[in-house]
Amino acid sequence: MNQSSKAHDYLRLAALGTRLNEAPLWEKFGKVVQMVGNIIEAEGIRAAVGDVCRILPGGPEAPILAEVVGFNHKRLKLSPLSAIQGIQPGCLVQPHRQSGTVSVSEGMLGRVLDGLGQPIDDLGPLPAGIPYSLSGKIANPLERPLIDEQLDLGIRCINGLLPVGKGQRIGIFAGSGVGKSTLLGMMARYTTADVNVIALVGERGREVNEFLQNELGPEGVKRSIVIVATSDQPATVRMKAAFMACAVAEYFRDRNLDVLLMMDSVTRFAMAAREVTATARGVRRAEIWPKAGRRGRQAGASRSACKVHPNCRGGGYLASAGGGRGVGQAAVAWRVAAGYPVRGSPSRAGHVLPACE
């Protein structure tokens, strides 16, 4: 386009024409064919495990984001990343453009994000950034530097007795209510690291504000990026929050900054991963998390009368086959721990003898 034509382009159609030339001529959609529990099955599109898809429900509801967690023949198994509202058979499914990446920038400092990278602190949208992969890169072990420099955490007992080196991984293991979150807040406030990346995975909703205001404080928030995925959110979102925290930490690390990455907690991340994997295999939730019943009986174990002494009220426990082998093992293991003799191998679900024998 010459100078004269540019002068007459008062509607700015030149840029629009460029975008139209680069746009695809068509878009391919799949459709929802089945939904069991929290797993949505779709066919008609191609996507890899870990990609994100958009489900367009019929009606005024917003699109539903779902992650591909498996496939069966040509059917994709999708785990939702947002609330399932308005979904029905035949809903259109489309691969998301930002699958497997997160946009990171220095504008994230001092912000609180959800498990999908969206701000939840009412401070406006995030500035445009650089896309970073959520899967990361596996470093060559021969290229990793030796840990020969200490990181000052600002806590004298840790610096003196349990020094932490730059590049080291540590774990904090303790019971409930003994100060793990308080210790993490102290480390974030007083450390000499340039940036803190904090992932709160599986926390209760009320505990988030308590950590931000009481433990972290305004000074700690200023140089921190906090990523929150509470326990009431889908397991896929809780897993993605951990991966997103790692991607954000890698971005600041690549800019030659010291980064302190903290996650509370790795246990809840592992529980979310277990739930996603088991659900994709079609395992019922009751089998994933068997509930303890009265007198320690597990779900799937049924009480049976004593077959040796007719007047005995002790009774045994017979694990039902429908509850799964693991549930039966749990029932037998509890009886063994309580001191009851077991007929046959304790590793198999079978009849447990009463205390009278």
CATH topology category name of the largest domain: Rossmann fold
CATH architecture annotation name of the largest domain: 3-Layer(aba) Sandwich
The total count of helices amounts to 9
Tally of DSSP β-strands: 16
Helix content: 25-40%
What is the CATH top level name of the largest domain?
Alpha Beta
What can be said about the biggest beta sheet?
A: 6 strands, antiparallel, barrel
Report, as a whole number of angstroms, the end-to-end distance. 97 Å
Q: Give the integer mean of the pLDDT values.
A: 78
List the helices and strands in order: HHEEEEEEEEEEHEHEHEHEHHEEH
Give the helix/strand class: alpha+beta
The side-by-side strand order for the widest beta sheet comes to 1-2-5-4-3-6
**How many domains in all?**
3
Per the principal axes of the C-alpha atoms, what is the gross shape?
globular
What are the segments in which pLDDT stays under 50 over at least 5 consecutive residues? 292-357
CATH superfamily of the largest domain: P-loop containing nucleotide triphosphate hydrolases
**Rg, please?**
27 Å
Give the percentage of residues in beta strands. Answer: 15-25%
Short summary of the structure?
The protein has 357 residues and is α+β, with helices and mostly antiparallel strands. 29% of the residues lie in helices and 22% in strands.
Tell me what you see in this structure.
The chain is an alpha+beta fold. It folds into three domains: 30-95, Thrombin, subunit H; 101-136 and 170-276, P-loop containing nucleotide triphosphate hydrolases (Rossmann fold), CATH 3.40.50; 290-357, no CATH class. Helix 4 (180-190) runs parallel beside helix 5 and helix 6 packs across helix 7 (266-280). The longest helix is centred in the last third of the chain and has 20 residues, at 235-254. Mean pLDDT is 78; it is low at 292-357. It starts with a helix and ends in a 20-residue tail after the last helix. It has a six-stranded antiparallel beta barrel. It has helices spanning 3-7, 13-22, 156-161, 180-190, 205-222, 235-254, 266-280, 285-288, 325-337, and strands at residues 30-36, 39-43, 52-56, 64-72, 75-80, 92-95, 101-104, 112-114, 130-133, 150-151, 164-165, 195-201, 224-229, 259-264, 301-304, 316-319. The chain is built from nine helices and 16 strands.
